[in-house]
Amino acid sequence: MRVDKLSPTAAPTETMGEEGWEAGYRQGFLDGHAAGAVTERLRLEAMEGMLQQLVEEKHRLVGEVRLLGERLADHDAAFDAHLKAEMENLHRRAANAEVELASLRQNLASLDDSLVQRSRQYVTQAWLYNSCRVFMGATRKVLESLLGEESQVSEQVRSLFGRLYTEQVRQSLEKGMIKTAPETCPEFAAAMPATRKFILELLRAQRSK
């Protein structure tokens, strides 16, 4: 059997091929690792930039929140002060209104008492007025009876009445008790027409003499 002899250069060639492959493999690995490292570093740098932006945004938001809180606190304080002032004003006005109401009630009670008292005085005066009318009516009838007879007494009565009546009217006017003589007063004429007529007849009879 024929045995082929190996070439003395065959083994080194195969060894160099394996070493080249391994060197290429290692170089490729290193290049890939380096490229991956660069990519990872870029990603980390990008993430760090984003993180820095987030931190800055956080600080900005925290500052805005703090400022907003201070503004709200100032607003709440101002609102509370305004509300307190308004409440105090309302309480003060309510107290004043209560005092005024109490005063009005007291004045109303006093007015009621005054009206009651005046009503009683009016009733009393009305009774006195009616009593005076009764007396004056009786006096007038007595005088009419006396003066109906032509006698010396009737003449004396006419003269005496005219003189005393005129004097009494003069004194009453001077004291401000009346505004005018009764026989010239419309209210007296409406209230006591018969007495006014009697006075005028006596005065007319006296003046005719």
What does this structure look like?
This protein is rod-shaped. The chain has 2 domains: 89 residues; 60 residues. 1% of the residues are buried. The chain contains 4 helices and no strands. With 209 residues, the protein is mostly helical. Helix 2 crosses helix 4.
Strand and helix order:
HHHH
Sequence stretches where pLDDT stays below 50 over 5 or more residues: 1-11
N- to C-terminal separation?
213 Å
Number of domains: 2
Question: How many strands appear in the DSSP assignment?
Answer: 0
Indicate the proportion of strand residues.
Answer: under 5%
Major sheet size, sense and barrel closure: none
Task: Provide the structure class.
Answer: mainly alpha
In short:
This protein is mostly helical.
Secondary structure topology:
Elements: H1 10-147, H2 152-175, H3 186-191, H4 193-207
Helix pairs in contact: 2-4
Can you give keywords for this protein?
209 residues, mainly alpha, 2 domains, disordered N terminus
